[in-house]
Amino acid sequence: MRKYLIWTIGCQMNVADSTHVGAELEKLNIQPTDQLHEADIVVLNTCVVRQSAEDKAVGKLGSLKPWRRQDPHRTLALMGCMVGVKPSSKLRQAFPWVDVFMEPSEAQPLVDHLRNRMIESELADIERRQLAQRYQWQDADTPTASIKHLSLAGEPPVAAYVPIVYGCSHACTYCIIPFRRGIERSRPLPEIVNEVRGLVAQGVREITLLGQIVDRYGYDWEGHANLVDLLHEVHGIEGLYRIRFLTSHPNYMTDELLEAIAHLPKIMPHIEVPIQAGDDEVLAQMKRGYTADDYRRLVARIRQVIPDVAIHTDIIVGFPGETETQFQATYDILEELRLEKAHLARYSPRPGTVSARRMIDDVPDEEKRRRHQLLEAQHERISAAYNLRWQDQCVEVLVEDRHKGKWRGRTPQNRLVFFEDARDLRGQLVDVRITWTGPWSMQGVAVDQEPALVAPPLAFTLTS
Length: 464
Ligand code: SAH
Prior knowledge:
By secondary structure, the chain is an alpha/beta fold. It folds into 3 domains: 3-135, Rossmann fold; 159-381, Alpha-Beta Horseshoe (pyruvate-formate lyase- activating enzyme); 394-449, CATH 2.40.50.140. Helix content is 35%, strand content 20%. The protein has 15 helices and 18 strands. The protein has helices at residues 12-27, 51-63, 65-70, 89-94, 108-116, 120-131, 177-181, 189-202, 227-235, 255-263, 280-286, 292-305, 324-337, 354-358, 365-388; strands at residues 3-8, 31-32, 41-46, 75-80, 100-102, 159-163, 165-166, 185-186, 206-210, 242-246, 270-272, 310-317, 341-346, 394-403, 406-410, 416-419, 429-437, 442-446. The strands form 5 sheets. The chain has a 5-stranded parallel beta sheet with strand order 2-1-3-4-5, with helices on both faces. A 5-stranded mixed β-barrel has the order 14-15-16-18-17. A 3-stranded parallel beta sheet has the order 6-9-10. The radius of gyration is 24 Å and the shape is globular. The model has no long low-confidence stretch (mean pLDDT 93). Bound molecules: S-adenosyl-L-homocysteine.
C-alpha cells in the first residue's frame, strides 16, 4: 500500500486545498502517513504571503531533496502559492528534484502524474473502489458531485473548511495572492450546498466557508446568488450546527449580510474583517478602498445588528512610508475599537506587487519588530479582558477533540475552551460554565456536571 504525506504552510484555504489533495490521493488507494520514511508521495503546500512563509517553504523543500533522491519511485509535489497559476521555468530550474508542480486548489496534476505511472490492472481496481466511495455523496439535483474537501482516512473532523471563492481580483498593493491564486472564481451554489450536505452526512458539524474576499461570493457571475443566498441554503441543512465564513472585506459587508448573521441561528457571531492600518494615507497607499472612519462606522453597525459579535481583524505594520504617527493611528484605533482578535504581520515586499515595484520598504526591520511587539502586547491585554467577561458565564461549546486529557472546543465567538469530562462528547454542543480565563483560552466545566448547589440552611423557621 502506497502512502502520502502532506505538509501545509499558510492559511485556511491551503488547509482546505490539502484536504482536497488527500481525498483525491485516497481515491487512488494511497493512504496517509505522518512519517516521512514511510511516504511514497510527499506534497508540500506552500504560502508566500510574507517572506518568512516563503523561506520556510524553501527550507522544507531543501530538506526533502535527500528523501526524493534516495528512491526513484518516490514523488515530490510542490503546491500552492509558491507555484502560482503557472510554474515558472525559474522555479523548475531551482528545484529539479520536484516531480510535479501544482497550482493552488488543484489536485489534478498530481493525480494525472500518478495515474500515468500506474498499470492498467491497478487503475481498474481503483475505479471499482471509487464507485463505492463514501464521499460520492449523491443528491437528486446534482447526481455525481463528490465531496472535495474531506479526507477519507480516519474520523471525519467536527469542523471543516469549504472554499466558496477561489482566487482574488482585488488589487491591494502589498498582496501577492491575486498573482498566485488567479482571478476571482466563485463556485456554483449547488456544488457547495451539495458538498456541505455530504460533509454533514459524514459527521461534520461546523463549516467555515472560505474566500479571499468571501463577501464577494457570486459577484463574478452576473445574476448569480450572493453570500446571503448561499448562507440561507446552507443554513437549511439538517445536522449542521454551525456556519462561519472568512475573510470579509469592509466594502462588501452589506446590511443584508449582517441581518442574515443576526437572524440565522446557525451562523456564528464571528466576523473576520481586516482593517490593515488605522491611517487614511496608509490605507490609500494600500488601495484598500475605505478610510478609518468607514471602518469605525462598520464596526458600530456590526455591533448594533449582531449582539455579542466577535470581530477579528488583520494588521500590517511597517508598510512603506509608515511614520511613527501613522503607526500610532493603528494603535489608537485598535485601542478604541477593542476588536476581539487581531492577526498581526510585519510588512514584507512580495514579488510582482505594486508596493514592491513602486514603493520603498523603508521602515527598518527592528522598527517593524518594535511596532509589532507593541500591538502584540496591546492585543494580549484586550484579548484577556475580553475573555474575562466570560468568567462564570455559561457558553455553548462545540466539542472538537481531546487535547492533553481535556475536551477542546470553541464558543460561538470562536474562543477556545477546555474542559474535563469522562463522557464522549466529540461533535456535541455542550453548555460549559467558564471557571478560568486567560488571553488565548478559557477553561470550564459542563453545566450538567457542576456540583449541585447545596441549598442554604433556612435562617429562621416559619411559625404559623
Ligand atoms: N484576502 C485575505 C488575504 C489573506 S492574506 C484577507 O483579506 O485577509 C492574510 C493577511 O496577510 C492579510 O490580511 C494581510 O494582513 C497580511 N499580508 C498580506 N500581504 C502581506 C505582505 N506583503 N506583508 C505582510 N503582511 C501581508
